[in-house]
Design brief:
The protein is α+β, with helices and mostly antiparallel strands. The termini are far apart. The protein has helices spanning 4-38, 65-75, 98-110; strands at residues 50-59, 79-84, 90-96, 120-127, 144-145. The chain has 3 helices and 5 strands, in the order αβαββαββ. A 5-stranded antiparallel beta sheet has the order 4-1-3-2-5, with helices on one face.
Length: 162
């Protein structure tokens, strides 16, 4: 049997670890509450505008994918930006309501072939601003955006299915 001192020490070690986890949880909740309190309340019928960041994998380079996804976003009332990454995936930033962004992401995942050049998504991974990754790119920093998509000399023989 352990002495009461040993039991207390063991509890203190375990309790300290638990205390750190509880402290982190409380700090996270406090930061969320401060952010909520500082945000403007939404008026009735107004939707919250979100910035969401994704990496899209599949057959998404050299098949007019960036043009296709940006035009699909514009069609849904979203602001978007897309950039080719070195690993043959595409970074994608979408700005708009949760529902409209979800609709586009579901279409990307479920439609199969997205255009007549064979663009097809295998996987979509969402990244969050606090992930501290290079995938959280502001729309204006992308290669192709809602604002500049028409300024490129795109091939005209592509049909878009989304």
């Amino acid at each position: 049997r352990k002495s009461s001192t040993e039991e207390g020490y063991f509890f203190f070690k375990r309790g300290k670890r638990q205390m750190i986890n509880v402290s982190l949880l409380l700090w996270s909740c406090l930061l969320l509450l401060i952010g909520y309190m500082n945000s403007e309340p939404l008026s009735k019928g107004q939707e919250e505008i979100l910035n969401r960041y994704f990496v899209v994998k599949g057959n998404v380079q050299n098949v007019m994918f960036r043009q296709t996804v940006i035009r699909a976003a514009i069609k849904r009332g979203l602001v978007a930006g897309a950039s080719n990454l070195k690993d043959n995936s595409v970074a994608l930033t979408l700005v708009g309501s949760f529902e409209l962004i979800e609709e586009l992401i579901l279409d990307l995942q479920n439609k199969g072939q997205l255009n007549s050049w064979g663009a097809k998504v295998r996987d979509v991974v969402e990244y969050f601003p606090f992930d501290d990754t290079h995938f959280t790119i502001d729309v204006s920093e992308h290669q192709v955006t809602s604002d500049n998509v028409n300024s490129f000399n795109w091939r005209t023989n592509v049909q878009m299915y989304i």
